[in-house]
Amino acid sequence: MMVMQTILQQITSRLLLNKLALIVILCACSMPLDFLHAQNAELIGKVLSSDTLEPLEDANVYVKDLNTGSASDLNGQFSINDLPLGNLELEISILGYRDTTISILIDNSLVNLGNVLLNPQILHFEEIKVEVHSDLDPTSSLSSLSMSGKKIQENMKGSIAQTLQNEMGVAIQSMGQGTTRPILRGYSGDRFLITENGFEIGDLSQTSVDHALSMDLGGVEQIEIIRGPRALLFGSNTISGVIDVEKNSMPEIEFDHFHTYLTSGYDSGNKGLFNNFSLVAPINKNNFRFSLQNRTTGDQMTPIGMLKNTSMNNTEWFFGLTRINDGKRGTVSIEHVEMDYGIPGSPEGHISGVDMKMNKTTQKLNYHQDIDFKGFQTFDIDQKFIHYAHSEFESDQKKPSVKLGQDIFLLQSKITGLKREIGTAIQYRMFNAGGFYWTPNTTESNFSVFGFSEKELLAFTGQLSFRGEYSIIEPQNKGTKFSNIDEKFVNKKNFGFLSISAALIKSWENWQFSTTIMRAGRTPGIEDLFSDGPHLGSYSYEIGNPNLDLEKTLGVESSVQYQKDKFFFLLNGFFNQSPNFHLYMKMGDGYVPGADWIEWGSGSSGWLYKYQMRGIKTEISGGEAQMGYKGRGIDITTDFSFVRGKDYSNNNHLAYMPPDKIGLLVSTKSNNDLSGSIRFSKVLEQKMISEFETMTPEYFLIDIFGSYSFKTLKGSHRIIFQINNVLDETYYNHLSKIKSIMPESGRSISLQYRILL
């Protein structure tokens, strides 16, 4: 173990990181690339939906024999240059439609295919994902969701939670606009994963509501909620699913021309400004991508006034280089995020508020190769290194009161075949804390092996996945103060568990049915085990429990879908039970010094409630229903979702469960370029609360959004508008930790301009 630690610590040095990136770039640039045949022709065409005759944006148009291709634009049009004369096979694919293969003869300098019609599949979600190996993708769970293209652009806000909050089974948790985080089916924290391009983000947002998610949604290409057996491919703590964000993804085929994306936006609700620039280009037979973005906001405006100390400034940049050569692909990238934001003051905690600073640097390497090995077709190996730092400042103080950080090294390899996958991963994490946050510096080593398979079983489609994990958590107690936990229990911990998930899917005529069962294990976090100190940003004094065991959960989910012509409906039901659910519980609500609360300074610094980590028996269940009609000029969708949580330790409701909600969405199109939608949202009163919670009244919201697209000689353009909370409703989010201070945002108008060159 000492040898491993020494090696990993060396990797964390900036010098080695720079050298490693340089070596990979030089190697990629030196890879040989065979010249193609004489190329002198151009192929053009237009991709349309066969049922509506509407253009399909971002369809993947791929010339298989030449490993080249393009993607359709806003109007469904595509162009592939420098093609050789002769017979070629053209593959056209877009998720939500059946793949189409066309044999063509290139016998001219310009070949026009005209309109290419794609037949839709029985999927009501707008799923659009461009992949070279789309034939390897497994069947999606009916409760999964994919959002991309125009749909994600029209719904997009600054954070994942705000963008997804109107979807079934999704709620939002926050302490102001800089700290919003989604809740999936009542589960928060790290009981579901938020990943970027398939890998964990590597920040501390899952540990506390005051830690911001280190990702802005500017320039995002797709958001996917993944449920069912496939979720275990990402991690074991995925009982409620995975939210995977596709952002700054590198092209998987060799591009033959530049793509430039420019986005600018303004939000009146916080006087926010957003700008994004992204460039994808072929340079010296390599695919290159660079992006830069910035978002600045003022304090959040509510119907009754301004919520002070909630302004935010976020800057991100990304650089990536990909080399493609005859079924092989190598990628190197580096990304940096910096974010400053505020936590408002509260009479129930830190009175004057807290200022937060966060930065994260991520370096990634990927090698991909097409193979032919016992039915497996692709091989991938990924390496990732993350350096993360987080500081908390009392108001007007230059020295941080709390300092948190971590360095993460990940190495993963996998082979993928036709709807099957197997792989292994090693992760090493070095957590450190400073200031008045008294969690000891700790190392965590995680070893995992995972697999997935989908097969036809008689009249059913069967799916089976597993993930075996073994973790070693080792605290460094030297110099650490413990006031509320016994130091003799603060020692090395070992955890091992096998998570398993299985599903059966049946399709006939217009119906589809699926049922999934999952047995998952979650390793307690470092903070869950060893914290003993004030956490200013979350208004709490946190006391860990070093005797925590694995959090084991058994869950079952069933779904049924019907779709005929333009009508569809979907029903989901789920039930999860855990005998050892890890939860920070408030020790009291009285004024007994040293028992329920602790003094923290005086005057503006205020005082903090004590929260203690416990393992309790819980049940979380719920359901979702959706019904809709998709016509030629109008789409109507209505949905309902609810979650129930039971705490058997005191025979009470589980804390912080989202209230029931009902939604109605009406969308219309005047033509192919102009679209508009109005959404009605009814969130019911939440009165099923735990001991120290308060009830939250119901509320009703109206939102209007849409877009206008047009094309000029200089590129494709899109203007996107949003009017949120049209009625300027004063409402409170039950899952907000600051609901006693201020309501949520009032009426706001957002405008966004996007151009593709």
Tell me what the structure shows.
The protein is mainly β and 757 residues long. The chain folds into 2 domains: 2-20 and 139-756, Beta Barrel (Maltoporin, Chain A); 31-121, Sandwich (Immunoglobulin-like). 6% of the residues lie in helices and 55% in strands. The chain is built from 5 helices and 42 strands. The strands form 6 sheets. The protein has a 22-stranded antiparallel β-barrel. The two termini are 52 Å apart.
Structural class: mainly beta
| Parts with pLDDT < 50 across at least 5 consecutive residues | 1-38, 122-131, 590-595, 599-605
CATH architecture of the largest domain: Beta Barrel
* Cα radius of gyration in angstroms: 26 Å
CATH superfamily of the largest domain: TonB-dependent receptor, beta-barrel domain
Label the overall shape: globular
Could you give the count of β-strands?
42
CATH topology of the largest domain: Maltoporin, Chain A
Question: In what range is the share of β-strand residues?
Answer: over 45%
What's the level 1 CATH class of the largest domain?
A: Mainly Beta
For the termini, the CA-CA separation is 52 Å
Number of helices: 5
What's the pLDDT, averaged over the residues? 84
Q: Helicity level, as a percent range?
A: under 10%
Largest sheet: 22 strands, antiparallel, barrel
How many domains in all?
2
